[in-house]
């Protein structure tokens, strides 16, 4: 793979940018009834999806490190992976959305969209190329059947 920045570091960087934007941008504050309920729901959903997807990888005895797709020993396609090709990244996105709700600045949604763009461009597409090289038609068929995010 071309890029070696761990997704957790990328998520932390976007979270920091969200904090800075919410703190120093004088416009964009929002609030609505149930905002914290939605925030907690997204946070819980992020944890649930993240933990379940990690358990599936550990159960399949394959690598969870996205920086080294060559260490992947098995294509995981069951469980959450039959609905999303990247539930771990989806969990990170939900975590950022929850954080954005906590901060209460509408412009943070732009940073969450930037996170999706960044992950697609610099993480997911190179991973997909590597997995296509490793698993060939089996992976291509999986990509046709299952969406990238949700």
UniProtKB/TrEMBL annotation:
The record's GO molecular-function terms, alphabetically, read: methyltransferase activity
**GO BP of this protein:** methylation
What Pfam families does the record point to? PEMT
- Record field: transmembrane: 7-25, 37-58, 89-118
Record keywords = Membrane, Methyltransferase, Transferase, Transmembrane, Transmembrane helix
Q: Provide the membrane topology annotation.
A: Multi-pass membrane protein
GO terms for cellular component: endomembrane system
Say where the protein is mainly found.
membrane
Q: Where in the cell is it found?
A: Endomembrane system
| Name of the protein in question | Protein-S-isoprenylcysteine O-methyltransferase Ste14
């Amino acid at each position: 793979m071309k890029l070696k920045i761990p997704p957790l570091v990328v998520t932390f960087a976007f979270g920091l940018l969200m904090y800075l934007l919410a703190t120093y941008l004088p416009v964009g504050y929002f609030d609505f009834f149930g905002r914290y309920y939605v925030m907690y729901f997204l946070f819980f959903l992020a944890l649930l999806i993240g933990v379940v997807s990690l358990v599936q990888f550990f159960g399949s005895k394959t690598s969870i490190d996205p920086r080294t797709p060559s260490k992947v020993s098995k294509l995981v396609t069951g469980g959450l992976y039959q609905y999303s090709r990247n539930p771990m990244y989806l969990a990170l996105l939900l975590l950022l959305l929850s954080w954005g709700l906590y901060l209460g600045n509408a412009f943070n949604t732009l940073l969450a969209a930037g996170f999706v763009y960044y992950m697609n461009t610099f993480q997911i597409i190179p991973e997909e190329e590597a997995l296509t090289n490793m698993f060939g038609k089996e992976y291509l068929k999986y990509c046709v059947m299952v969406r990238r995010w949700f």
